[in-house]
Amino acid sequence: MAGVTFDRVTKCFGDVVAVDDLSLDVFDEEFLVLLGPSGCGKSTALRMIAGLEEPSEGTIEIGESIVNDVEAKDRDVAMVFQSYALYPHMSVRKNIEFPLRTRKVASDEREKLVHDAAESLGLETLLDRKPAQLSGGQRQRVALARAIVRRPKVFLMDEPLSNLDAKLRVQTRAELIELQRELATTVIYVTHDQVEGMTMGHRIAIMADGKLQQVGPPQAVYDHPANLFVAGFIGNPPMNTVSGPIVRTASDPAGSFGIGVEGTVIPLPAGHCAAIERSGAKTVVLGVRPEHLRPATEGGLVATVAVIESLGHERHVDCRLADGQMVISRLSSSEPAPLVGERVNLTVDPLELHIFDGVTEEAIETT
What we know:
CATH 2.40.50.140, 21 strands
C-alpha cells in the first residue's frame, strides 16, 4: 500500500479554479475523507489522483513516485464511482474478475481472488447473476469487489453510497470501515455527507471553493473548527453563530470585556479576552454548539421559540433573537420542552464559546 501527497496542486478549467493550491498528505493505510459541499473541488482532486484529470500546477505523489506524467492504467489505484459503472452484459463473477483478465492473471489465481473478494462482501451466492438482477446495495458491493480484487496501492471512492437508501447507507458504511481495517489499505473517500465523514474517516479534509479549509481527526475538527465555514458545515444542527460589538464595562478589570447581543452582554473568560486582544480583531463572531445552549430561568440571550423539531431521542428548539438571528438549542427528549411562541432565556458556559474574527472569519485561538 502507499500514501498520497498533494504538493501545491491547482486545477483550472478555463477561468474556473476547481482546486486551488492544495497541499495534503494522506498516510499509508489511512482512511481519509475529502468532505465538502457540491462543487468544492473534492471529486476533481480524486480524479487527479486516478489520472483522469491532469494538474494545472503542482505535483501528486503515490508512494515515493511523482505520477503527474504516469498514465491512469499504470498508477495502481482503483476507483469506485457513485454510478457503480458495472458491465450490464457480464455476470457478477465476470465483472469482478475483469481487471484481473486485463492484467492477464492466470485463471486459477483469478478464481481464488474473485472468491476471496466475493466472500469478503457477501456476494458468493450472486456470482452468476447480471447487474440488472441486483439491488442497489448489491451492485455497490460488486463495484467494491471489483476494486479490491487486485489489491491496488490506493482505493479512491467517489460518493459510493449516495444512491443507497438511508438504512442501507448505514449498513454499508459499517461494512466499508471493517473492510478497510481488514485490508489495511489506503482509502480516499469523497462525500458531501458530514455523517459519513465523521463516522468513517481517521481524518477528514474539508474543502470549500477549491481550497482546503481544515484537516484533522473528526472529533478535533468538531471541537475546534478552524473558521466559520467549518463551524457551520460540521455538526447537525450546525454551530450557532451570533455577532455583536465588543463591550467593556467600567467595573470590570482592565482587559476584561464581553460581547453585546440584543441588550445583554455575554461575558468572556480571561483567556478569550486575551486572545481577542492579541488578534487585534475589531469585530468578532461567537459560536456555540446547540448542545451547549441551555434554557434558563433568567439571564443570557432572550429569544422566542419558533419551531420545535422532535427526533425521538432529542429535540431541536429553534429560537429567534430580537434582531432576527436564529439559534438552536439541542435538548434531550426527557427534558421539558418550551412551547412555540414562548419567550425563553438561553445561557451558555463561557468556556464552551468559540470566537471568530468578524472580518477574516478565522478562529481566534484561546490557548
